[in-house]
Design a protein that fits this description.
The structure holds two protein chains of two kinds. By secondary structure, chain A is an alpha/beta fold. Chain A has nine helices and eleven strands. Chain B is built from eight helices and no strands. The model of chain B has no long low-confidence stretch (mean pLDDT 92). Classes of the chains: A alpha/beta, B mainly alpha.
Chain lengths: 253, 203
């Protein structure tokens, strides 16, 4: 069963075509890494998939349920607000720069949405949040405020915040780009442990080591199209396409 | 003295909440509403408060021929003050709201918060913290501006001090009035500072 299905996604900004006919499916339990040069459209793809950006053309489905589909004139039409609200609850997103709520403590950041969006009780939400925090190695930081945490800790809190909603799928938007290099290992370990638990994930990243060690499949994007995709050892170590080769070569230098 | 404090308190009570819908209108996607609020703010900031007091007080008589009553004086003062200060507060709110990073809205949206929840739970508390210094400025100005109510004959602090001073041919009453405004403002500044420190638990 596919958790996410994107068909023929098209997106333009001010007449400039950023995504040209992109189709991506992510199966349950699969971990997909999206790589590519900046401006390749990979972040826009993620933003369209998480409903932060509207698609101009194409279809978007979660667990077989339609969030957006082409209308009569070919332009994408979105489902009603209630459907979108329900679909939103099936995925979580971890941002590059965390976007924790600075006025809430670590614990409150994690329990607030379960309580006021999913109407769960404080006891239940707190219990689940504390379990997630221990898993992230942050159980002793529950009462801290985001500004008191390191970048790596903040990112782990934001992963816990996303997980607290019980998503079927997690998106990561360059989760280590805002971190010092020595802190990326923490995040990688968290994502690896999620992968072992069969969490479905789509990760936009610049880190090849990251993509290689955690992804089942790597998608290489450039110029708004998917140039190449396959197993990480094929795409990263033995790329077939000229553009993939050029991109990876640039990274080595 | 009581009248001055009452004008002060009622103005804040009216203008601080009223400024919020004005700020929303000013940021609205709906162009006519946005322009209307822009014009409103520009008039309120671009003309003297004393003139606005006179318009609110004498307007009903000049325009609608409604006879002026003595009891209306005080209400006219409150209405004019609220309308004027709401315009200033609205611009402060707008700056505060616009300074909250886009990512806060996006994080809330992905987590499924409704628009109302996003504003009241995530944006508003952060906005309050950011706008406290400029709001303090306005509040302090308001303490002194209450004296303008004398222009439509409201018997507030300053009106009385002037009358006593000219009757007794002495500066004492005016000095007392100065002391009153100064102490009042010192208390306001102290209270706002405390409030700011209470919100200093996060950055």
């Amino acid at each position: 069963m596919n958790v996410l299905e994107i068909e023929s996604l098209q997106k333009s900004f001010d007449g400039r075509e950023v995504l040209k006919d992109i189709s991506v499916s992510v199966a349950e339990g699969e971990v997909v890494a999206v790589i590519g040069p900046s401006g390749s459209g990979k972040s826009t793809l993620l933003r369209c998939a998480t409903l932060l950006e509207t698609m101009d053309g194409g279809a978007l489905r979660y667990l077989g349920r339609s969030a957006a589909a082409p209308g009569k004139d070919g332009k994408t039409v979105y489902a009603d607000a209630q459907t979108l609200k329900e679909i939103r609850s099936s995925f979580g997103l971890v941002f590059q720069s965390f976007h924790l709520f600075p006025h809430y403590s670590v614990l409150k950041n994690i329990i607030d949405a379960p309580m006021c969006v999913q109407k769960r009780s404080r006891e239940e939400a707190t219990k689940a949040a504390m379990a997630l925090l221990s898993k992230m190695g942050l159980a002793d930081r529950a009462d801290a405020y985001p500004y008191q945490l390191s970048g790596g800790e903040q990112q782990r809190v934001s992963i816990a915040r996303a997980l607290a909603m019980g998503p079927k799928m997690l998106f990561f938007d360059e989760p280590t780009s805002a971190l010092d290099p020595e802190l990326t290992g923490d995040i990688l370990r968290v994502i690896q442990s999620l992968a072992r638990e069969k969490m479905t994930m789509l990760i936009v990243t610049h880190e090849m080591a990251f993509a290689r060690s955690v992804a089942d499949r790597v998608i290489f994007m450039a110029g708004g199209v998917i140039v190449e995709q396959g197993r990480p050892e094929d795409v990263i170590d033995n790329p077939q396409n000229e553009r993939t080769r050029a991109f990876l070569k640039k990274l080595e230098r | 003295m009581l009248t001055s404090m009452l004008i002060f308190a009622l103005t804040l009570l009216g203008a601080l909440p009223l400024a919020l819908p004005i700020a929303f209108g000013r940021m609205s996607k709906h162009a006519p509403l946005r322009m209307l609020m822009q014009v409103y703010i520009s008039f309120m900031r671009g003309t003297p408060l004393m003139l606005q007091l006179l318009v609110v007080y004498f307007g009903p008589w000049f325009i609608l021929k409604i006879p002026l009553s003595n009891g209306y004086r005080f209400y006219a003062a409150i209405i004019a003050f609220v309308l004027n200060y709401a315009a200033y507060f609205a611009e402060i709110y707008r700056a505060g709201i616009e300074s909250i990073p886009r990512g806060q809205y996006e994080a809330a949206e992905v987590l499924g918060y409704s628009q109302g929840q996003t504003f009241w739970r995530i944006i508003f508390p952060q906005m309050v913290k950011r706008i406290l210094p400029p709001v303090t400025n306005e509040v302090i100005t308001l303490v002194k501006d209450t004296s303008l109510a004398f222009s439509i004959g409201v018997m507030e602090m300053f009106t009385m001090a002037k009358q006593i001073s000219s009757a007794e041919k002495s500066m004492t009453a005016l000095v007392a009035a100065a002391a009153f405004y100064y102490v009042f403002n010192a208390i306001v500044a102290w209270a706002m500072n405390r409030f700011e420190r209470r919100l200093a638990y996060y950055r």
